[in-house]
Sequence to fold (234 residues):
Amino acid sequence: MDTQITRRRAETRSKILDAAIGVFADRGVLGASVEEICERAGFTRGAFYSNYSSKNELVIAILELDRDNSAQAFETMSSEDAAQVIGELLGSHEGEVTRESLLKFATDYFMSQQKTDRDFLLVYPELRLYAARNPEVRDAFLKTHKLTMEVLSAQLDQVVEYFQISVTMPTRSFIENIAGLWDVIMLHAVMEMTPRMNCIADLPPEVLERVLKPLYDFVSGWAVDAPLLHQDQE
Fold:
């Protein structure tokens, strides 16, 4: 019975979180009300407050969700499954396999593990602005951001070790730089979307390639070589 309650509670929290992301994307955090979030989630105010004490707590939960998604993506990258997927991609690649194409494959694989739907990409900048204006959330945001940088740096260290990557800057510096670049690129991607597009994968290939080029260039400049990625190509 306890397991069923825990599972039901987790599902309720997840639905409220998804609804909040959608409402925040449409109206901004300041413009969104608990009532709107409840209506979109299909729950009562009582259900909301039995899971989240306030809208501020909900904002912090979304920040933590973003951190966990990224950490999971890096963890997936440092695995046999990732190596197998990249190997399959390389096997289907037409033309000469270059260092840049190898790193692009690896970057694309990492991105495939991320949330890149339109609503989520719109929400994160909103959360940062909200935190900057709200002392209660600001401290939690800074704490979560610091932990995120630490977690992702540790995860990326594992990826670097697993794929034997030679790099031009420490992983912590890379993570901090890529985080800022990612925010700008994702906002650009959102602005390239039409109303019918739900995630960046819906963009025309040539548009997506153009939008993501700064990311590929930055990764290529950081990772000098990755022997494990192309050992089967030699």
